[in-house]
């Protein structure tokens, strides 16, 4: 397991280097922290140009001995870019190169052979969530901010969609006082709204800002 994430401090943000990059990167961006993934190998061949001195690098390697990451970190440090390392050992090669260390401590991996990255990757993603939450608190990230970046979600719809955006404007079930009860039921059924609206002969409200409605419950 080895990863690098780049965070932009705006103020405060990361660049991610490998495994849980998509999860951590997406979570940070969703909480107003611009971030992107850089593959260590590709960084050695030009992608380092994506980094800015105002960025921060989150380097994740459970063993702390990933050759891919350990080879790129010295070049990042040369540009005085802060590095946060996540690994199981503070004295690992990668952790010694970082400015800040976050431990990934587990008893054993969850797989049957206790070798394949399972528990460690889950913990790394949980640490990514914790970092994202800390950044939310630091910049007083509110429900309104969340909705701003998630307009398609439930919260976004609740805050931004108005009645006028979703209200039915055509083919409304309209009644006049001349309609019989039986006719009213037919109109309501055809309108599929469970109710109908009374209007005058000009299809206008009887009184300004005053609506007369009959619903199926009234008829029952």
UniProtKB/TrEMBL annotation:
Residues 1-141 form the SIS domain. Coiled coil: none annotated. One of its GO terms (molecular function) is carbohydrate derivative binding. GO terms for biological process: carbohydrate derivative metabolic process; carbohydrate metabolic process. InterPro entries: CBS_dom_sf, GutQ/KpsF_isomerases, KdsD/KpsF-type, SIS_dom, SIS_dom_sf, SIS_Kpsf. Pfam families: SIS. The keyword Repeat applies. The keyword Repeat applies. It comes from the Bacteria. This is SIS domain-containing protein. The lineage of its organism: Bacteria, Pseudomonadati, Campylobacterota, Epsilonproteobacteria, Campylobacterales.
